[in-house]
Automatic annotation (TrEMBL):
Protein name, as recorded: 3-deoxy-D-manno-octulosonic acid transferase
Lineage summary: Bacteria, Pseudomonadati, Elusimicrobiota, Elusimicrobia, Elusimicrobiales
Natural source organism: Candidatus Avelusimicrobium gallicola
Annotated active site: 66 (proton acceptor)
GO biological process terms held by the UniProt record: lipid A biosynthetic process; lipopolysaccharide core region biosynthetic process
Gene Ontology CC entries for this record: plasma membrane
Pathway(s) the chain acts in: Bacterial outer membrane biogenesis; LPS core biosynthesis
Molecular function terms, GO-annotated: Kdo transferase activity
Family membership noted in the UniProt record: Belongs to the glycosyltransferase group 1 family.
Residue ranges constituting the 3-deoxy-D-manno-octulosonic-acid transferase N-terminal domain according to the UniProt record: 39-214
Broad EC category: transferase
Reactions listed under catalytic activity: lipid IVA (E. coli) + CMP-3-deoxy-beta-D-manno-octulosonate = alpha-Kdo-(2->6)-lipid IVA (E. coli) + CMP + H(+)
Amino acid sequence: MGHIILILTNLVFPLAALGVVISFLLSPRRDLLKHLTQELRERFGLEAEGSVIQDAVWLHCASVGEVMSMKEVISRLKDFYGKEILVTTSTQAGKETALKNPQIKQALLVPLDFYPSCKRFIRLAKPYRLFVVEREIWPNMLYAAEKAGVPTALINGRISAKSATAYKLIKPLFSLTLGGLRFAALQDNDAAARYAGLGIKKENIFVCGNVKYDTLNDQPAKIKEVEKIFTALGWNKNKILVMGSTHPQEETMLLRAAPELIKKGVKIVFAPRHLERMPEITDALRQSGLKYALVSENKFNKKIDVLCVDVMGLLSSVYAKATLTFVGGSVAPRGAHNLLEPAILSKTVLFGKYFYNAPLTAEALLECGGGVLVNENNFKETVLRLLADSAHLENMSGKARTAALGFKGATNKIMEVVKAYEQK
């Protein structure tokens, strides 16, 4: 049955691909299509003979976050195997991030999950090993690799309850492709149970934690840059609320609360999750009547109350200068982004109830008192209440850091599993 479903998915692939293009054309993220023409060769595995490095350790990551979180793992895999590293990503931004890592020999966009494309790419690359990262479970990729004799594994694996339920509707397909994995190094016990239910053998499942937390940095590189911006804004003595990785619903919540927060002397920084949304974000800021600035425009004065971080690579440094933080994708139902990024910097973390991508970290922060649940109705009052008691807030922030430190160590555990399987 799994083979039949695999064949059917390839038969409907052209129509599905057309549907994706149309949906992008109608979405706010349509600017991503500006790269479409130049991407076609990579997307369909049509690179020229000899243009892809061979006999490399191949890692497939979704996008920027996964590439960045894999930095130490990539270095360790390169040292262990003595091979070059080939990285594929699902997004152009992920590819560009990978190209900046000197440990990575080559970075390409991953072929679409169409068997002929995957088969040709694997024939060109002849990879030594394939590691798929987090939830990048592409059946044709894994099946083509298995047929070519390439050992495969899932590392830093995760899967939501919703996705696992959906995948069970076509369980024979996932049993076919996941059953061929040498091992799966997963983030938590929930992921272990869900992947076992989809066909990974229990003896090949290992709970190692999340490598993202091994990259937690309590000394961000651009703090001096942020300090200069805040000095130009005249914010050095103000209480500052920093909201990271925000989505539209959360920005609406912020703009609704902002006037009263500003009246109480609070300055606000927010960093949108998707920068391609900046046209609509600047429109919303204009319509709000708030005095705002964009980091990219470098036009700062002491009348500004709201700062929008519309550049990459600055969020951790902004968190470091915050009095209080909020992590997005949590009031908006996106599963929550990196809750420990501000926590490791000794910052109390506000977040919403949608933390299904990070249940362990959310629960740890809530249990220790370093995190606080908020929603659209109580957000403003919660911010004002916490900022009114500096001593209590400082105590909470210390607890947040302690919780964050407890999540390190996944990289070492993954490498132990890799080494054990290579010795079999």
